[in-house]
Write a structure and sequence with these properties.
alpha+beta, 3 helices, 6 strands
């Protein structure tokens, strides 16, 4: 059985969209955005998402730390005037962690695909903690 375009749109997760301006300081000697700066773009989108979730949900997210990150660089991102989109969605929610997926793209090309595993973190004890119901509800909106 094949899915229609409407069925695919219904099952696709909601995405948080962060617009990232490419800065001259982000470029490497090959005149494209440095691979480490691309990870910073993901961080900016993640912070935007976690803060947006907090505003939208009232309570928001507690402390979270990155446990794992992987990225596939698909095309060089060159200097440009218009920002790129960093789109983020949730692919998995577990007891103490969640996995975020990302794409850095524009209307014509995907430059990077990545995944990050975030773990709930208890700052006073410096240890992992379980995600609470508020966090789970906010994450569910994007999964």
């Amino acid at each position: 059985m094949t899915q229609t375009q409407d069925e695919v749109a219904i099952t696709a997760p909601k995405r948080h969209v962060h617009h990232q301006q490419v800065r001259y300081a982000d470029l490497d000697p090959q005149q494209h955005v440095n691979n480490v700066r691309m990870l910073t773009y993901l961080e900016d989108a993640r912070v935007s998402f976690l803060n947006y979730g907090g505003v939208a949900g009232g309570e928001g997210f507690g402390a979270m730390v990155v446990a794992r990150q992987e990225a596939d660089y698909l095309a060089p991102l060159l200097p440009r005037r218009e920002p790129v989109r960093v789109e983020l969605w949730v692919t998995e929610v577990r007891n103490a962690s969640c996995t975020l997926a990302y794409e850095i793209l524009d209307d014509e090309k995907v430059y990077l695909r990545a995944r990050t595993v975030l773990v709930g973190f208890d700052v006073p004890t410096q240890s992992a903690r379980r995600l609470n119901d508020t966090e789970r509800a906010l994450l569910a909106e994007y999964s």
